[in-house]
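Input sequence (126 aa), recorded before submission:
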Amino acid sequence: QVQLVESGGGVVQAGGSLRLSCAASGRTFTSYGMGWFRQVPGKEREFIAAISGSGDFTHYANSVKGRFTISRDNAKNTVYLQMNSLKPEDTAGYYCAAAEEHYYIDYGSLAEYDYWGQGTQVTVSS
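Predicted structure, token format:
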């Protein structure tokens, strides 16, 4: 079992920055690829970014590439999402998730992720 707790959401003006954190419980944190997703009411949850268990591989959605950076600190069982140049369309609930890694893992697929946090709201004002 993995429990995930997000923090760092809030209200920011367009062009600003926020850093989200996701703290994970458990002793096998490095066995899990970690992802960030977001969801707007009435829409499907969408993939934002993912990082492998070792941290060597990262993957981003085109909508955030060059603006968002995912990283992890395995000593602290924490994954981060640095969000720069925020736009009003980035407004959403942001969720972190953990996927047990395997050879054919598709980091961008919601179906790969077994554990989810409760989410943190990010609001970008224009």
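Checked by second reader. The chain has a mean pLDDT of 96.
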